Amino acid sequence: MTPTLKGDKDMKLLKIEDNKGYYFVTQDKFATVDEITKDDILRLVSLTLDMNQEVEFDEYDVDNLKNKAHQIIYKSIVEKLQELKKRRKDYTDESERLYLTDYEKYREEPSQQDA
Predict the structure, then answer these.
(1) pTM for the full model?
(2) Cβ atoms 1, 30 nearer than 8 A
(3) What is the 3-state secondary structure (H, E, C) of 27-48?
(4) 72: buried, middle or exposed (CB in 10 Å: 19+, 13-18, 0-12)?
(5) Torsions phi, psi of 22, nearest 5?
(6) Sign of the CA dihedral with 75 first, then 78, 79, and 80 last
(7) Contact 25/40 with Cβ under 8 angstroms?
(8) For 48-101, how does the pLDDT look when each residue is reduced to its tens digit (9 = 90+)?
(9) What is the pLDDT of residue 5?
(10) Average pLDDT, stretch 13-27?
């Protein structure tokens, strides 16, 4: 299997190898996409949204995935993660705005000690 990290920043989260789809588990381990769990998906989403981490995915190619289940699962996951990757700056900005709003609201409230 190919190494996960490329340089210090790029990480491959999904790949196609030997006519099977694989997802990133750890730095040196991939598992087939038909074994993916909800927690694995959440971890892949988190890695994709991380602005400090460049991620990449092998493009979906029906000719390179022979197993029908792998085709369906891989296609679904890669499409969602690619969309997240394109919009991750928007998600980060929105998240920061939400936290800033709450922070500002907290700062403006009188403390319980002043009462």
Answers:
(1) 0.73
(2) yes
(3) CCEEEEHHHCCHHHHHHHHHHH
(4) middle
(5) -130, 150
(6) positive
(7) yes
(8) 988 888 999 999 999 999 999 999 999 999 999 999 999 988 887 887 888 888
(9) 47
(10) 95
Cβ proximity of 54 and 61 under 8 Å: no
Number of helices followed by number of strands (H, E) in the chain: 2, 5
Token digits of residue 72: 């369906």
Q: Around Cβ 21, how many Cβ atoms within 10 Å? A: 27
Give the count of beta carbons closer than 10 Å to the beta carbon of residue 91: 13
Number of separate domains in the chain: 1
Cα gap 40→66, rounded to integer Å: 23
Position 6 scores a pLDDT of 46
